[in-house]
């Protein structure tokens, strides 16, 4: 059986195990153009105008866009459900449902076993119709990543943090995935073509990791965890990968098991797009790019080299169909800023009056008509006052 057919076979097995009804559209196996002849509002931000004064929700947006609040932490049950939207909403993603609607999942970055993942379900018209938990009793669930087979990888951000694979529909129990490592996980991004998952670590001397599935994704039961080393040559830099001997870190932290590994200062959001891996490091305010086929590695943006940087506090990442890398700020000016393919920095939106918060969980609905994100601590600066927003064209 070829690698391609083996991988397809494994995906079918996974779906038959219970994560059923997940549209291929949501997972990136079908492109937005399959479903809409017209250009979606968020295909590219290059033509957006300047930010306008704050709207009634305190959001500065380009002309032609509007905001609405879809959930508030700790207030009351969402829609007709009995689920109270969780405190400290963090990383998120959207998944299509069979009825033409979609689900937005959101991590809860609370400690003391109060973390987990909540989900908002939307109808085909965009109305919030349900809310529920898909993971409970975990810790500091920061970011994570959507998989092309329709699950959510929720990452715990503490020294012995784990990755949990969750069903956005809440039909199957979440499963811990120990081979993805035991460390302060931040985010994950899937490279299905090469059966790899890339992972960031949010500590000052964190590693940049990848998991290589032995039997092809979505199988996460066998494989190796590797950590990157930056290697310079006459043409620039490449990455060299080293197997981490003990992914469970039973005696030595994962990042210290390979002496030659390279340190990254506070790894945050990560995404795979068009054969490249983009990720950010908040400690030094950088955006990095790794070209998978050639292994070339470079810095796309470095705030330290700019006397008046537009983008600081780099955190969660999502990418538009046109290749704009959208970076949410933790602090900074409370903006989501786009790094365009031609290396321009363009603010997409800004939250006003919430300076003690951070922007988390940017994610597009399946048709790229709507953008979701959260202000983790809201106006008060406390996690119990988090707010989750939707942005759409007027």
Question: How would you sum up this structure, described in words?
Answer:
- The protein has one helix at 3-16, and strands spanning 59-60, 65-72, 89-96, 102-108, 115-122, 128-138, 141-146, 152-156, 163-166, 175-176, 185-191, 196-201, 208-213, 223-233, 236-243, 267-273, 276-281, 286-291, 296-302, 314-319, 325-329, 335-339, 345-351, 359-364, 370-375, 387-393.
- By secondary structure, the chain is mostly beta strands.
- It has a nine-stranded antiparallel β-sheet, with no helix packed on it. Strands 1-23-22-21-20 form a five-stranded antiparallel β-sheet, with no helix packed on it.
Mean pLDDT: 91
Mind telling me which CATH architecture this is? 6 Propeller
CATH topology: Neuraminidase
CATH structural class:
Mainly Beta
Instruction: Please give the largest β-sheet.
Output: 9 strands, antiparallel
Q: CATH-wise, what's the superfamily? A: TolB, C-terminal domain
Distance between the termini: 50 Å
Classify the helix fraction into a percent range.
Answer: under 10%
Kindly estimate the percentage of residues that lie in beta strands according to DSSP: 35-45%
The low-confidence parts are 1-37
Task: Tally the helices.
Answer: 1
Broad shape = globular
Provide the structure class: mainly beta
């Amino acid at each position: 059986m070829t690698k391609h057919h083996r991988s397809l076979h494994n995906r079918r097995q996974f779906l038959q195990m219970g994560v059923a009804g997940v549209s291929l559209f949501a997972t990136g196996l079908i492109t937005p153009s399959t479903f809409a002849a017209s250009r979606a509002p968020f295909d590219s931000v290059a033509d957006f105008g300047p930010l306008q004064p704050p709207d009634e929700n305190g959001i500065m947006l380009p002309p032609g866009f509007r905001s609405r609040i879809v959930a508030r932490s700790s207030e009351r049950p969402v829609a007709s459900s009995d689920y109270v939207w969780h405190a400290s909403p963090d990383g998120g993603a959207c998944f299509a449902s069979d009825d033409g609607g979609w689900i937005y999942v959101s991590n809860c970055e609370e400690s003391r076993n109060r973390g987990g993942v909540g989900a908002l379900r939307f109808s085909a018209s965009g109305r919030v119709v349900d809310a529920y938990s898909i993971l409970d009793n975990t810790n500091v669930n920061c970011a994570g990543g959507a998989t092309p087979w329709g699950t959510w990888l929720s990452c715990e951000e503490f020294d012995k943090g784990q990755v949990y694979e969750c069903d956005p529909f809440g039909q199957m129990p979440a499963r811990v995935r120990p081979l993805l490592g035991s460390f302060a996980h931040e985010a994950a991004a899937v490279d299905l073509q090469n059966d790899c998952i890339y992972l960031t670590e949010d500590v000052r001397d964190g590693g940049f990791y990848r998991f290589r599935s032995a039997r092809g994704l979505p199988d996460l039961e066998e494989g190796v965890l590797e950590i990157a080393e930056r290697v310079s040559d006459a043409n620039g830099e490449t990455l060299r990968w080293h197997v981490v001997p003990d992914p469970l870190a039973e005696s030595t932290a994962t990042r210290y098991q390979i002496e030659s590994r390279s340190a990254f200062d506070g790894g945050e959001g990560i995404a795979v797009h068009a054969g490249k891996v983009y990720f950010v490091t908040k400690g030094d305010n950088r955006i990095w790019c790794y070209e998978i086929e050639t292994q070339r590695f470079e810095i796309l943006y470095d705030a330290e080299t700019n006397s008046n940087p537009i983008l600081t506090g780099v955190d969660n990442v999502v990418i538009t169909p046109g290749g704009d890398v959208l970076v949410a700020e933790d602090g900074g000016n409370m903006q989501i800023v786009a790094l365009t393919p031609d290396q321009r920095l363009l603010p997409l939106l800004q939250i006003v009056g919430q300076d003690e918060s951070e922007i988390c969980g940017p994610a597009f609905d399946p048709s790229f008509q709507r953008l979701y994100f959260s202000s983790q601590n809201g106006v008060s600066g406390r996690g119990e006052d988090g707010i989750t927003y939707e942005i759409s064209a007027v």
